[in-house]
Amino acid sequence: MPPTSAVPTELRQTAFRGSTALRSGLLTPRQLRGSSWRRLLPDVYVHRDVPVTHELRAEAATIRLPEAVVTGCSAAVLWGVDLVGPSDDVEVTVPPAHGPVRIPGLRVRRAHLAARDRWHRCGLPVTTAAATAVRVAALLPQDDAVVAMDQLLATGVIDLEPLRAYVSAARGPGSARARIVAALADGLAESPQETRLRLIIGRSSLPPPVAQHRVLVDGRFVARVDFAWPDLKLAVEYDGLWHAEPGQFARDRRRLNLLREAGWRVVFVIAADMHWPDQVVIRIATALSS
Question: Where is the domain boundary, 125, 157, 184?
Fold first, then answer.
């Protein structure tokens, strides 16, 4: 492998067209075939020290297809929602008049994108957050799409009401599905499993809870709980990764003690419980009636 100093500065951090590097004299064919470079797509390379992420592969896609716009789950990644990983295909959209494209590692669709649905994010052409939400709603199963929309809202790149307004006016593939998904999203969940738990509760005969309820005692903040029935002082919490950080267990125990001292009962739901939604509903119903 050539020493680091032999690597052209222009090529150390970003993806590039191999043919362009050869024509400009930055690399020789032999150097390009060497171990210093990783091929992301046909004729698109990156230095081997650059971590491969989905964002990087999306950049490679737009280098390979300059007229393309990053869309779908790949666009969601650029908006901060990791729906796909480094090894997953990148979805891009090219104009309808573009010829068919078959490139391993890319999912290329031909469709018209209105100017209002185009944006730039992380330096790449991408659909707006709202247009991305509509496309994702068309791609994913309904609950997964609600989770994704909640995550998108949680990033703060778009608010719920503007998103619902956009979706209500949208037409074309996925728009009807997106209206259903937007009606189910609330943007309050702090994790995907909280959204899934909210959907379980919402489909049941349980009375609607208050999401992300702030528990106050004499005006003093005690805790914020995932779901609450304040009149009954009952909270339901999705219990994720306790002990994930140093001191987290102690903080969680202290918080639970404060809730109990304030007269609140807490029903915890863990990941394994989510496989048995009927049992989750029964547990909550029993707590509500006791």
Answer: 184
- Residue for token digits 């496989």? 275
Eight-state DSSP code of residue 274: G
Query: Which residues fall within 8 angstroms of residue 288, CB to CB, at 6 or more apart?
Result: 206, 207, 229, 232, 234
For residues 238 and 193, is the Cβ–Cβ distance under 8 A?
yes
Q: Which domain holds residue 13?
A: 4-47
Q: Are residues 15 and 81 in the same domain?
A: no
pLDDT tens digits, 195-209: 999 999 999 999 999
Per-residue CA distances from 199 to 159, 162, 183, 195, 236 (Å): 20, 22, 12, 6, 13
Q: How buried is residue 4: exposed, middle or buried, by Cβ count under 10 Å (0-12/13-18/19+)?
A: exposed
Residue 149 to residue 286: CA distance in whole angstroms = 31
Q: Are residues 219 and 278 in the same domain?
A: yes
77-132 pLDDT tens trace? 999 999 999 999 999 999 999 998 999 999 999 999 999 999 999 999 999 999 99
Could you tell me which of 97, 213, 113, 195 has the C-alpha nearest to residue 152? Answer: 195
Residues 6 or more apart whose CB falls under 8 angstroms from that of 21 comprise: 8, 11, 27, 32, 45
Could you give the CA distance from residue 155 to residue 121 in angstroms, rounded to a whole number? 14
Same domain, 135 and 214: no
What's the number of domains the chain is made of?
Answer: 3
